[in-house]
Amino acid sequence: MNATPEAIFPAPLKKGDTIGIIAPAGPVRNETDFAAGLKMLADLGFKTRYRSDILRHSDYLAGTDHERLAELHELWRDPEVKAILAVRGGYGCMRILPDLNFDLIRQHPKMLIGFSDLTVLLTAIRQHTGLITFHGPMLTTLARTDRDSQEAFFDLLTGRPRLEIKIKGLEILTGGQARGRLLPGNLTSLVHMLGTPFEPNWKDTIVVLEDIGEAPYRIDRLLTHLGAAGRLEQIAGLILGDFDQCGEREAIWQRALELLAHRSIPVWANFPCGHGSKNHILPVGAEALLDSSTGRLTLLEHLAR
């Protein structure tokens, strides 16, 4: 595993700036959610830019690999685009990674925001360029995300990130402190990256996991795979987010505890991260402190410079 490069912090936005909208994975299934997201960004004072054919689709992909990659590169090159927000996840980001222009991204750092299948892009870009990316609401989920997550999204976007995150209803399964780089992401996507050239560095990370619509045995298998691959031996702490439609959450928590029973690291659960209405934006690769005595996740670096 290659060492993680030094962090690059993207510049914050101000009202009037342009946000590029990309569809690097699945197609837009709900045009109402698409329009609602655009309206919310406009109401917050931002302009948006996207290709006229962004609603294109080819079955489960939002266009060909070439189209989706060209869209991302085009907006990344555009000097007027100050941040890039994904439309939705689904599947498809892994297919464009081999031809992704990491040099372009490194030379023109800007915010990239998304979750679900976007985990693949967020973590690969952080690992290969050093750019801090952001795991958070996407265009089609933004309007139906709860107010607290919306406010955290806007605060971070404009350079006023919440450096201390204290969550109501947090479950501390195993106490203790941990310091490390945040690695939030979709469990399925992260497991599919194992053994590829784009896999993130797991060493000394605080991992935040979420998923949706996976049968309980599949979640068990994914967690067990992480353990068998030795990745859970490397992490400094674990936070379990939302596992909507994945069976009883307590069973998921219990399996995680079983896999980490031999390690004295903090394990938290019921964190607002995932496909539900609560999806607090988190920086991928930023240093953080997890303190079970206070129930606070503290970001140790300013996220936008």
Question: Topology of this structure?
Answer:
Elements: E1 18-22, H1 31-43, E2 47-49, H2 65-77, E3 81-86, H3 93-96, H4 102-107, E4 111-114, H5 119-129, E5 133-135, H6 139-142, H7 147-157, E6 164-166, E7 171-174, E8 177-186, H8 187-192, E9 205-212, H9 216-228, E10 237-244, H10 249-259, E11 267-269, E12 282-284, E13 287-291, E14 296-299
Parallel strand pairs: 1-2, 1-3, 3-4, 4-5, 8-9, 9-10, 10-11
Antiparallel strand pairs: 5-12, 6-14, 7-11, 8-13, 13-14
Helix pairs in contact: 9-10
Per DSSP, the total helix count is: 10
Text of the CATH class of the largest domain: Alpha Beta
Biggest sheet: strands, sense, closure? 8 strands, mixed
Give the count of structural domains: 2
The name of the CATH architecture of the largest domain is: 3-Layer(aba) Sandwich
Reading side by side through the largest sheet, how are the strands ordered? 6-14-13-8-9-10-11-7
Mean pLDDT: 95
Q: Give helix % range.
A: 25-40%
The CATH homologous superfamily of the largest domain is termed Murein tetrapeptidase LD-carboxypeptidase, N-terminal domain
**Beta content:** 15-25%
Low-confidence stretches are none
Could you tell me how far the N terminus lies from the C terminus, measured between alpha carbons in angstroms? Answer: 28 Å
- The ordered H/E elements are EHEHEHHEHEHHEEEHEHEHEEEE
CATH-assigned fold name of the largest domain: Rossmann fold
Could you give the count of β-strands? 14
The backbone outline, from C-alpha atoms, is: globular
> Structural class of the helix and strand makeup?
alpha/beta
- Determine Rg (CA atoms, Å): 18 Å
